[in-house]
Fold this protein.
Amino acid sequence: MSFTNCKGYLFGDDTWTSFCSAQLTFSGPDVVERTDCNRTVTLPCYVNNLKENNIKVMFVTWKKQGKIIFSFDGAKQAFLRDETVPSANLTSQEDLPKGIASLTLISAEAGVGNYSCEVTESNREGETRVELRHSSGPWFLLVESAIIIVLLLLVIIFCSAQFSFIALKYEIEPQKKTGIIVAGVIFIVAAVVGTVLFAQDGYAAQNQAGLGLIVVPAMIAVPLQYFMFGIVFDSLPPTAFVLIFFQILGYIIAVVGFALCVSACPPLHGSVVIAGLAIMASANFISMAYVFITGSRMKDHPRPGK
């Protein structure tokens, strides 16, 4: 007589047929990945061959590393949950008779490891296993993060180049010069710290703070531009006001984008932050070019207004 292995046991031909036909079979992925953006996690468990499709004759047990963390008794309509996973629940109790015994719980309670789903229907039962893994990745897309950092860097470069040109060509009051330098240093330090925090993988408070340090202190560039125009011109021309207006507009757009992104993972409005910083960078570049051209024409005067 030949023997066949069925779920870890050896049976003769007749015994194998009766026993294995009573087993429930499952389908679905063996591995589920959880990211920092997931607020909830669903562990899949799909039974293929239910016969009665009656919730009152079904019993579901979920285990983690062999320890029971959740169970549902269809006959009693009763749930039992381990204290470590108070949010655990069937994805859909109504779909259980259809073979869907998946478990949903909040991400903070879903520790990585091996989980098992055991389903019983009358005298038939079966078990499947799924591994939960944590996948770490950046909050923003890599391209978006790079563009945000580059645009911030361009704003700093254009402001610094403009101030360096003005400092070399015009006499600046020591107090005003010191104020501009201090403001610029604060801007640069905030940008560096923000970039370091923002560029790290994951979606956490440090990433949100990093983006905030990139966007919010960019406001410093607006009064800096106003003061630099004030050094070059006795009375600001309309062009200067237009350029300052576009810097303010870009800053407002960037801050709105930051507010929309900080509470979303993945961020849905990263393009708004990019658009705002792009407007600021463009306005700073044009301002720099405007001051260079205007200043270069005034070779024999301490400032164009005199």
Summary: Residues 142-169 form the longest helix (28 residues). Residues 1-19 have pLDDT under 50 and may be disordered.
